[in-house]
Design goal:
single chain, 397 residues, alpha/beta, Rossmann fold, Arc Repressor Mutant, subunit A, six-stranded parallel β-sheet, six-stranded mixed β-sheet, 12 strands, elongated, Peripla_BP_I, HTH_AraC
Length: 397
């Protein structure tokens, strides 16, 4: 049997990171399941060394383009190159003329966000990294978080902090604690990496902030080392890094056989979630009920109906009603009404406006309907509730 032609391939990755190691594992998996014969050039200590790479006499390169130094070193390479890195919201973020396999940053952040929503949380924040060329992937995850917050009409609270090092460690922890204390609790926090999540988890423990009761925290990478270094097991998004490696190897294999794949872009979604103690905020309630309540919290006063809530969750009305009856002992309509009533009570207590204005702002179809709800649920009219709630203030000197 004729053996396939052997090619010399360089892998330019920082194997000290779990993400890069998983990509390398995906490349290895591709080689083990095909008849491809590659001699791999990979530094023994797993660090990516670039000096002299332009003079390397090989056949192809797969490289981590999240590192701007790698992009610059390979900009004029005469060899076939496949880039691997994070996705970008703007096309200008991608290198020109090079096939690119990306981890889908938006889907990664959305998966983490949806998980926190299912945990019953209604406030969210993002713990990122200082803006820098080497942290472009972190800024893209910030952008994804802010996009989701804007979509759901919520405030995007993003904290970058400082780059941690031995001299700045104490200062970094103090600043993280100050930020954590400034957040309204409970809050779900998405960290742009497991390393960043681990730091914040330690800050929570220093400050006596309960995880996940006050802060539910999720990272990205599913790094086993980060889990071992934390007392509270850390939830994390599992990136599709092995699939990225397999895909990159397949593209380079095609290029070595003459395929022209310039500007090909493939986005690989996350592989799933590893849900551990750091985000088990309300594990006893059904996730679809949590999603529905999250939607109701935002839009109850805009006149939403049960059908719209079911559409948002992606289940039938009857299924959602059954979950609500089982978990909360009331219907979806009653839950919407509950949030409307709470909003009306808040406005009547804090603002001197007319009852009719409150009815409109809280989504009641008529003043008479709000009147009937107050009588049924609280045993008084909206005006009586308003006067009663303000009576202590009126009696004060």
């Amino acid at each position: 049997m004729k053996m396939p032609t052997a090619h010399r391939i360089a892998l330019l990755f920082n194997g000290n990171k779990i993400y890069d190691r998983d990509i390398i594992a995906g490349i290895a998996a591709y080689l083990n399941t095909t008849r491809v014969s590659w001699d791999l050039f990979l530094e023994e200590d797993f660090r990516c060394r670039l000096p002299g790479i332009e003079r390397w006499q090989g056949d192809g390169i797969i490289a981590d383009f999240d590192d701007p130094a790698v992009c610059a070193a390979l900009a004029n390479s005469h060899l076939p190159v496949v880039a691997v890195g994070g996705s970008y919201a703007l096309d200008s973020g991608y290198p020109a003329g090079i096939p690119y396999v990306a981890t889908d940053n938006f889907k990664i952040v959305k998966l983490a966000y949806d998980h926190l929503v299912e945990a019953g949380l209604m406030r969210f924040a993002c713990f990122s990294l200082p803006e820098a060329d080497v942290n472009r992937w972190a800024q893209e995850r910030e952008t994804a978080f802010c996009t989701l917050m804007e979509r759901d009409h919520m405030r995007a609270d993003v904290y970058r902090g400082v780059a941690t090092s031995a001299p700045s460690w104490d200062e970094a922890v103090e600043q993280q604690i100050a930020w954590l204390n400034s957040l309204e609790k409970p809050v779900g926090i998405i960290a742009v990496s497991d390393a960043r999540a681990r730091q914040l988890l330690q800050a929570c423990m220093h400050a006596g902030i309960a995880v996940p009761e006050q802060v539910a925290l999720i990272g990205i990478d599913n790094d086993p080392l980060a889990r071992m270094l934390t007392r509270i097991p850390l939830s994390s998004v599992i990136q599709g890094a092995e699939e990225m490696g397999r895909t990159a190897a397949h593209l380079l294999h095609q290029m070595l056989n003459g395929a022209r794949l310039a500007d090909t872009r493939i986005l690989v979604p996350p592989a799933g979630l590893n849900v551990l103690a750091s985000t088990r905020h309300q594990p006893f309630q059904h996730p679809q009920v949590m999603q529905a309540r999250h939607f109701i919290r935002q839009y109850a006063c805009q006149g939403i109906k049960t059908e719209q809530v079911a559409d948002y969750v992606g289940v039938s009305r009857s299924t959602l009603e059954a979950h609500f009856r089982h978990e909360l002992g009331r219907s979806v309509h009653d839950e919407i009404l509950h949030f409307k009533l709470d909003a009306a009570k808040t406005l009547l207590t804090r603002e001197p406006g007319q009852v009719a204005d409150v009815a409109v702002r809280c989504g009641f179809t008529t003043v008479q309907y709000m009147h009937a709800v107050f009588k049924r649920e609280l045993g008084c009219t909206p005006r009586e509730f308003q006067l009663r709630s303000r009576s202590p203030q009126a009696a004060s000197p």
